[in-house]
């Protein structure tokens, strides 16, 4: 026989499905697990007497299309559990793939302490994953938005004292990524960014449009304004042989490829796909200024 809680989860699944939530069963289970402070696979262990009205309050919020991660208060990103909420972009699985690419390149880099710049760090997701998974790396994380930066500060502090320690290896910088980190010009081994890239006026789901901060989403008429800025900053920051990785929207693969052309000095510009097989990020090598190549 089903437990009362699992009956409630089944009803909640229907309610979320009717509200247009994309993964209603998973979200109902994750909310129940968070309310009862157990893992998703342990819901059958919750005693019937422990049923909590908070569950239905939170299902109501999710049915109103508040993001699951704002309701539970955290988002998973690679090996991290990050604190998120109003004012910060919820990290996405697509970005884990680009971060994994960067981790692979940093691990094979013949540099004692590779220097990384994460432009537009939001919750600190990319910066902290790199610091956690590549302990030699020194990561400079840049964020312009003070609200988002406050979340990044919480997460950097949270992971500083946890094994594997990231303390002192992620440095947060306030500022516009067009004009920061001048002290690192020509010395950075890897520039990585998941900048805003949605064309102004494009349709987005309510969870995105009403809860992710506008500065994390919109980027000019073709969505490429911030990526063009990241390209210019990467040229300034990278040492010869340094790498850049930039996330973009699925339809932007070709356009972003041409933001990193050989004419500007870039080499080995490559498109990469996400787990759903859609174009998702571009990488390129900075061999030096064009005049230095001959
Ligand atoms: C799409 S979010 C990505 C956040 C995080 N890197 C992630 O992947 O979850 C983009 C972030 O870039 C920040 N941002 C946008 N334009 C910026 C700029 N010119 N300078 C610095 N940060 C910027 C936004 O505030 C936002 O936090």
Describe what you observe in this structure.
This protein is α/β, with parallel strands linked by helices and 294 residues long. The chain is built from 11 helices and 9 strands. The strands form 2 sheets. It has a 7-stranded mixed sheet with strand order 5-4-3-6-7-9-8, with helices on both faces. A two-stranded antiparallel sheet has the order 1-2. It starts with a helix and ends with a helix. The mean pLDDT is 93. S-adenosylmethionine binds at residues 89, 91, 95, 120-123, 125-126, 142-145, 148, 176-178, 194-196, 215-216, 226.
Give the strand tally. 9
Radius of gyration, in angstroms, nearest whole number: 21 Å
Question: Termini distance?
Answer: 75 Å
Mean pLDDT: 93
What order do the helices and strands follow?
HHHHEEHEHEHEEHHEHEEH
Cofactors and ligands: S-adenosylmethionine
- Backbone structural class: alpha/beta
How big a fraction of the residues is strand?
15-25%
User: Given the C-alpha coordinates, what overall shape results?
Assistant: globular
Major sheet attributes: 7 strands, mixed
Strand line-up in the sheet with most strands: 5-4-3-6-7-9-8
Unreliable stretches covering 5 or more consecutive residues? none
> Helical percent range?
25-40%
Number of alpha- plus pi-helical segments:
11
């Amino acid at each position: 026989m089903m437990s009362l809680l699992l009956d409630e989860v089944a009803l909640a699944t229907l309610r979320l499905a009717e509200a247009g939530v994309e993964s209603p069963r998973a979200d109902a289970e994750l909310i129940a697990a968070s309310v009862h402070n157990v893992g998703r696979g342990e819901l059958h262990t919750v005693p019937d007497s422990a049923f909590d009205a908070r569950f239905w309050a939170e299902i109501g919020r999710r049915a109103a299309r508040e993001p699951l991660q704002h309701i539970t208060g955290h988002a998973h990103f690679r090996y991290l559990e990050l604190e998120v909420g109003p004012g910060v972009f919820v990290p996405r699985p697509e970005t884990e793939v680009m971060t994994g690419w960067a981790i692979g390149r940093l691990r094979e880099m013949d540099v004692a302490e590779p220097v990384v710049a994460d432009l537009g760090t939001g919750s600190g997701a990319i910066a902290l994953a790199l610091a956690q998974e590549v302990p030699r790396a020194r990561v400079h994380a840049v964020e312009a938005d003070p609200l988002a930066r406050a979340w990044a500060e919480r997460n950097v502090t949270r992971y500083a004292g946890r094994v594997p320690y990231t303390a002192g290896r992620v440095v947060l910088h306030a500022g516009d990524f067009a004009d920061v980190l001048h002290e690192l010009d020509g010395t950075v081994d890897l520039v990585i960014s998941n900048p805003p890239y949605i064309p102004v006026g494009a349709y987005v789901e309510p969870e995105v449009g009403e809860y992710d901060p506008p500065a994390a989403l919109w980027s000019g008429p073709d969505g490429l304004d911030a990526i063009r800025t990241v390209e210019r900053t990467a040229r300034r920051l990278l040492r010869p042989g340094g790498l850049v990785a930039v996330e973009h929207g699925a339809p932007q693969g070709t356009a972003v490829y041409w933001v990193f052309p050989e004419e500007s000095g870039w080499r080995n510009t490559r498109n990469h796909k996400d787990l759903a097989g859609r174009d998702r990020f571009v990488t390129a090598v900075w061999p030096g200024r064009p005049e230095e190549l001959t």
